[in-house]
């Protein structure tokens, strides 16, 4: 039964010491072995990770767990992608439990969540950070142990990399998968998540998650908390406390001492209630009480600041999932009707930029008009040889679309028609609206917009002024390829 399970394990990591024991458990566990174990190193730099030789390591460059998981599942080719965090403890027979959960699922179930258990101290009440970890036992859709069909990830476009932390990115993905008509099942496999202690200001730093809450609201509406099973939150009280505190500080300057005292009383009452609510369930040691008292003063304004920052950021356009390039005068220097591979010369910096996108897990493709074939100026074999040289210099592209027709042929693929953009998106497994096309002519811009994609024009001396003016109005215009990627939201 279990031998037919086709799955890959993807583990994003920041180099925790718990990674190696986790890998040893997976490699020696009972049940079907994964097709591959992909560890995605999300540190900005550093030495090589200590992993067994059977494990493949990818690097995501410190862009957060959403980007790391995207790189992992896009690299994998199996039917199922099992996401596991690097700080969990798996049972020795976890592979067999996983197979039991996945192989019995009907086709409309796109994901299976493991059951998380968080052991708490038996000799004392749990501290604030330990109680926070314990909340994972009842959280929906967390990727500490979550398996998705790769087809569902392709349909949804993967994780939204605007979530830079291990917070809300899993709920966002699950909501989008459910909105696409799929179900998410609850598995029986058990995964242990240790409750580790954090620093004095851990709860203050956690307020950065309010920015992610703003993005959730922008994407999924005001009822996103109910839909994800998240608690009601305290942002309203935090805002009232912050306003009261500011009023208590500023009103005396306006000689309104009575109102200042009232504001101070409101602030003190809200702060005391917040601190008490956090202290009572805990161990109530002097150190814990001090930590709760100090952070209960600081958390409300920090939460408001991060929420405001998130509201502003949520209004920015989403970075594209895939980047498509025109070939001539975008990736390589244009030589009219180029038929000799030795004449291929990359645009300065283009090779490094494309490789950077690929290393970060962003799919790349080429969409190119090559009417020289229809005109009889080059042969298809010569075109293929030139394109092979481009691939040799730039590395592999996820899709390569070429139109060999001429203007008068009436085809649906030649830019400015959107055919090649549609086909490129289909081969990459993404929505055309999630693509950006970068090129040097108005035809590139028009093809992208006709397909519902975004466009960035990088003009050359041959680009017509009306094309530039139209691109400034309907798309974006960049001085070079590096700026084009920045405008597209995918700069490294």
Keywords:
single chain, 13 strands, eight-stranded mixed β-sheet, globular, five-stranded parallel β-sheet, Rossmann fold, alpha/beta
Question: Outline of this structure?
Answer:
With 492 residues, the chain is α/β, with parallel strands linked by helices.
What does this structure look like?
By secondary structure, the chain is of the alpha/beta class. The chain has three domains: 2-197, Spore Coat Polysaccharide Biosynthesis Protein SpsA, Chain A, CATH 3.90.550.10; 198-316, no CATH class; 322-488, 3-Layer(aba) Sandwich (Rossmann fold), CATH 3.40.50. It is built from 19 helices and 13 strands. It has helices spanning 19-28, 65-75, 94-102, 128-134, 150-156, 169-179, 202-205, 209-220, 224-228, 235-250, 257-279, 286-314, 350-359, 372-375, 380-394, 419-428, 442-450, 465-474, 481-488; strands at 7-13, 36-41, 56-59, 80-84, 89-90, 109-117, 145-149, 183-192, 322-325, 364-369, 399-403, 435-439, 454-457. The strands form two sheets. The protein has an eight-stranded mixed beta sheet, with helices on both faces. The chain has a five-stranded parallel beta sheet with strand order 11-10-9-12-13, sandwiched between helices. Helix 13 links the parallel strand 9 (322-325) and strand 10. Helix 10 packs antiparallel against helix 11 (257-279) and helix 10 (235-250) packs across helix 12 (286-314). The longest helix is centred in the middle third of the chain and has 29 residues, at 286-314. The radius of gyration is 27 Å and the shape is globular. It is found in: Cytoplasm. Residues 8-114 form the Glycosyltransferase 2-like domain. Its main location: cytoplasm. This is D,D-heptose 1,7-bisphosphate phosphatase.
């Amino acid at each position: 039964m279990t031998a037919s399970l086709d799955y890959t394990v993807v583990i994003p990591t920041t180099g925790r010491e718990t990674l190696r024991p986790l890998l040893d458990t997976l490699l020696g566990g009972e049940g079907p072995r994964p097709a591959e174990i992909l560890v995605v190193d999300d540190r900005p730099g550093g030495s090589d990770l200590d992993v067994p030789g059977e494990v493949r390591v990818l690097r995501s460059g410190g862009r957060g767990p959403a980007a790391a998981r995207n790189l992992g599942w896009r690299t994998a080719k199996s039917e199922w992608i099992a996401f596991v965090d690097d700080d969990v403890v798996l049972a020795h027979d976890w592979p067999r439990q996983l197979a039991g959960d996945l192989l019995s699922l009907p086709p409309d179930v796109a994901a299976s969540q493991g059951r998380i258990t968080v052991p708490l101290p038996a000799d004392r009440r749990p501290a604030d950070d330990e109680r926070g970890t314990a909340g994972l036992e009842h959280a929906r859709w967390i990727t500490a142990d979550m398996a998705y069909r790769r087809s569902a990830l392709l349909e949804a476009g993967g994780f939204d990399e605007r979530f830079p932390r291990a917070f809300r990115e899993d709920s966002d993905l699950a909501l989008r998968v459910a909105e696409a008509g799929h179900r998410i099942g609850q598995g029986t496999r058990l995964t242990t998540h240790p409750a580790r202690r954090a620093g004095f200001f851990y709860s203050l730093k956690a307020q950065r998650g309010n920015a992610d809450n703003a993005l959730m609201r922008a994407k999924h509406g005001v009822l996103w908390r109910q839909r994800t099973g998240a608690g009601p939150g305290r942002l309203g009280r935090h805002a009232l406390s912050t306003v009261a505190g500011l009023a208590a500080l500023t009103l005396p300057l306006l000689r309104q001492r009575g109102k200042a005292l009232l504001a101070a009383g409101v602030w003190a009452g809200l702060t005391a209630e917040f601190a008490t609510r956090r202290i009572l369930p805990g161990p109530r040691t002097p150190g814990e009480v001090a930590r709760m008292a100090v952070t209960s003063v600081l958390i409300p304004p920090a939460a408001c600041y991060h929420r405001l920052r998130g509201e502003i950021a949520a209004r920015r356009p989403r970075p594209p999932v895939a980047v498509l390039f025109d070939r001539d005068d975008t990736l390589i220097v244009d030589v009219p009707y180029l038929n000799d591979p030795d004449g291929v010369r990359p645009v300065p910096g283009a090779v490094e930029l494309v490789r950077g996108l690929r290393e970060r897990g962003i799919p790349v493709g080429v969409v190119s008009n090559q009417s020289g074939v229809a005109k009889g100026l080059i042969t298809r074999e010569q075109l293929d040889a030139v394109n092979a040289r481009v691939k040799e210099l730039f590395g592999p592209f996820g899709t390569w679309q070429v139109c060999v027709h001429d203007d008068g042929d009436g085809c649906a693929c030649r830019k400015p028609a959107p055919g090649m953009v549609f086909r490129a998106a289909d081969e990459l497994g993404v929505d055309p609206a999630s693509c950006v096309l970068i090129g040097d002519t108005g035809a590139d811009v028009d093809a992208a917009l006709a397909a519902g994609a975004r466009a960035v024009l990088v003009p050359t001396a041959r680009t017509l002024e009306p094309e530039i003016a139209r691109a400034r109005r309907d798309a974006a215009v960049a001085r070079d390829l590096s700026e084009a990627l920045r405008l597209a939201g995918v700069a490294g």
